[in-house]
Amino acid sequence: xxxxxxxxxxxxxxxxxxxxxxxxxxxxxxxxxxxxxxxxxxxxxxxxxxxxxxxxxxxxxxxxxxxxxxxxxxxxxxxxxxxxxxxxxxxxxxxxxxxxxxxxxxxxxxxxxxxxxxxxxxxxxxxxxxxxxxxxxxxxxxxxxxxxxxxxxxxxxxxxxxxxxxxxxxxxxxxxxxxxxxxxxxxxxxxxxxxxxxxxxxxxxxxxxxxxxxxxxxxxxxxxxxxxxxxxxxxxxxxx
Length: 240
Ligand SMILES: *Cc1c(COP(=O)(O)O)cnc(C)c1O
Description:
alpha/beta
């Protein structure tokens, strides 16, 4: 399976171009300006060498879902210097309390804050590394606890907790499409949660929703951040 690096670069360039085209088309339909949208390229399971190529191709935002994998990958990218050294890392996966301080040492944005216990751990990590970490509250749209996310009814209190923590900035909400429901109805609920949160915290206006399979739908309902993996990098082995 070993291939020339130039070939991989071309694959990634083609994936990025295809995603940018989809985003533009979706924006035209939704009457939105593509500059309102941030595409986070989710690089989990792919090597740091891919992240370096993506940075060379102009990607600024990359996402990871496990600290064990992300931490050494961030270090490799920093060591590679060049544009990969100044990427914005987004943590999008389920977060364990005992990993929160580590994640806060490199993540610019954590998309998966879903319970109060995480907040002091993230705050401590951010303060210790003298950084500000932007936080999104992950909202459960199907009340399935195994997939993470706060219940919509708990979002207001969680938002207050994040907003008052040192080193953290409350920036909005995030969701993953529910498994057995009509996605557009679920995303409409996410938008409702987002509007309610903004009544208390005006700056919390980011909505992270939309992956390779459903980004058109979420652009239509008002997503600001898309988390796109396989459409750029190709299919990945199942995570163990
Ligand atoms: C892996 C992952 C993505 C990207 O998924 P694709 O279907 O490959 O685009 C987005 N969000 C989260 C939370 C993920 O874990």
